[in-house]
Amino acid sequence: MKKYLLLALLVCGCVYSAQKQRAHHAAEQYIRDFLNPHGLETVSFGELEKLRRVTPLDSSLNYAHINPDDSEKVKKYIDSENFQRPDRAPANIREADSIAKGKLFYYTLTYVFKVDSAGNKRLMRYKFEMDTAFNVLKAVDVTNDHNREF
């Protein structure tokens, strides 16, 4: 039994490591392609976080005390809401499908690197949002932003 547990932990660790590797490579490649900095030197990568976008349907389900993972209750709620508000029907159906298929997940990562700026090394920080295939959706320079947590 302990052998199987150890094997399962090893496999899960390898998958997460591969995801981190792909995310790091995507962030570094994005900086190389779009900023074209001289003397790019990686300092560190922040923690890779898997997040989920919140939809209006999530808010409605939360208000009704329904777990989004309980597909039968969600379907009943959507049918009821669509009957009361036919204008929300297409959006509710689309959002329920996205929730069921896991299309709302994305990853965030902070990348810290040094670049050569007129002979001086300059430290820069970028916050990345990536889809589940690790394509960069958004990159924001947070070097001088002291209000954000990263």
What does this structure look like?
This protein is α+β, with helices and mostly antiparallel strands. It is built from four helices and five strands. The chain has helices at 2-34, 56-63, 71-84, 89-101, and strands at 41-45, 49-52, 105-117, 120-130, 136-141. Helix 3 (71-84) runs antiparallel to helix 4. The mean pLDDT is 84.
Topology:
Blueprint: H1 2-34, E1 41-45, E2 49-52, H2 56-63, H3 71-84, H4 89-101, E3 105-117, E4 120-130, E5 136-141
Antiparallel strand pairs: 1-3, 2-3, 3-4, 4-5
Helix pairs in contact: 3-4
Low-confidence parts, pLDDT < 50 over ≥5 residues? none
Radius of gyration from CA coordinates? 21 Å
Tell me the helix content.
Answer: 40-55%
DSSP summary: helix tally:
4
Structural class: alpha+beta
Order of helices and strands: HEEHHHEEE
Mean pLDDT: 84
The overall strand count is 5
Shape label: elongated
Tell me about the biggest sheet?
A: 5 strands, antiparallel
Share of residues in strands = 25-35%
Task: Quote the distance from N terminus to C terminus.
Answer: 40 Å
Any descriptors?
single chain, 150 residues, alpha+beta, 4 helices, 5 strands, elongated
In short:
Helix content is 45%, strand content 26%. It is of the alpha+beta class and 150 residues long. Strands 1, 2, 3, 4 and 5 form a five-stranded antiparallel sheet that branches.
